[in-house]
Amino acid sequence: MDFNRAQEIVSSSKEYEVTYNGVSVWIDKLHEDGKTATVHIRKSLEERSEVNVDELKEEYLIH
After folding, report:
1. Contact residues for 15 (Cβ-Cβ < 8 A; gap 6+)
2. Which regions form coiled coils (predicted)?
């Protein structure tokens, strides 16, 4: 995903499905370098990781 899309997702009031290595995550913070973000696995609030934004994927849910 590109950094601008990540910013849109973080700023939105809607909920989006974002994954990192196939695992569903929340984006906690986008870093000023424009390349990295702090995320956590949706089921584990304590476990946070800094990842490259381009490794995040937006999953499209079919309703």
Report:
1. none
2. none
